[in-house]
Design goal:
The protein has a single domain (4-264), classed as Vaccinia Virus protein VP39 (Rossmann fold). The N and C termini lie far apart (50 Å). It contains eleven helices and eight strands. Strands 1, 2, 3, 4, 5, 6, 7 and 8 form an eight-stranded mixed beta sheet that branches. With 274 residues, the chain is of the alpha/beta class.
């Protein structure tokens, strides 16, 4: 039996080789072989952001974390689950040539696509590394800012992921992360479906639990910068639920939300007494 990581890696390897128009037709971007959730339900429009590059936009996000990330000139920014490089190129517009942007992705095909894109753009300060978010190939205290877009819900061990984010951030650094969370419990048929996991739905956890993991990882000033509901169409839900189960799901008022959350790593700098 395949592990969740193997399923996600396989699906996103297929996505890397497809155009955005096809990716947007399903939750995990692989057309009719997948669960069929229209990804435009999740995604936001990047086109008005400086640095946006259409070839790097695969339409797979659920927010605009880079827009909210308070990135300054000269910052070092790390993007988790960087895909074809979309958020990295937007981040680079904020950091300028003085900064550095590092994208991390566990899928070889995505890294290859991102490197092709950065070569076309000629950026010398944007790099992409193959790696696992639960064990990042980055030294401690490296990043001023961490961003991520609809990726951490795909990570089985979210506690380890946030501890790694804490490790790589400088003291005083912060993150802005868009992700999918729940209020209420999904029906078992949805919660256990591997395809739905790859599509960012069944991998989501309770909003309260998500925020608690962030707090327990040591972060301060935790703030939800944006929240929007995600409504799955009946025709999608009926692939998993009977008519009566669908009505029970609606009556339960289960909420699926895209949130963009901000938090800071507090610590002393060289001018302060610890």
């Amino acid at each position: 039996m395949k592990t969740i990581k193997e399923i996600v890696k396989e699906k996103y390897s297929e996505i890397a080789l497809q155009p955005k128009s096809k990716n947007e037709k399903s939750c995990c971007g692989v057309g009719s072989s997948c669960c069929g959730v229209d990804y435009t339900i999740f995604s936001e429009n990047y086109e008005n952001l400086n640095g946006y590059n259409s070839e790097a936009d695969l339409g797979l996000g659920c927010g605009l974390p880079t827009e909210f990330a308070k990135i300054k000139k000269g910052d070092t920014v790390v993007d988790l689950g960087s895909g074809a490089g979309n958020d990295c190129f937007v981040a680079r517009a904020f950091t300028g040539e003085e900064g550095e942007v590092i994208g991390i992705d566990m899928t070889e095909a995505m890294i290859s696509k991102a490197r092709e894109n950065v070569e076309k753009l000629g950026f010398k300060n944007v790099k992409f590394r193959l790696g696992d978010i639960e064990n990042m190939p980055i030294t401690a205290n490296k990043a001023d800012v961490v961003v991520s877009n609809c990726v951490l819900n795909l990570v089985p061990n979210k506690e380890k992921a946030f501890s790694e984010i804490y490790r790589i951030l400088k003291n005083g650094g912060h993150f802005s992360i868009s992700d999918v969370v729940l209020e209420g419990n999904l029906p078992e048929q949805l919660a256990k479906d591997a395809e739905m996991y790859a599509g960012c739905v069944s991998g989501a956890i309770q909003k309260s639990e998500y925020l608690k993991i962030i707090e327990n990882s040591g972060f301060k000033n935790i703030t939800i910068q944006k929240q929007k509901p995600i409504v799955l169409p009946d025709e999608i839900l009926l692939q998993y639920l009977s008519e009566s189960q669908l009505q029970e799901y609606k009556d339960a008022n289960i909420g699926i939300f895209s949130i963009t959350v901000y938090a800071e790593k507090h610590g002393c700098n060289c001018n302060e007494e610890c």
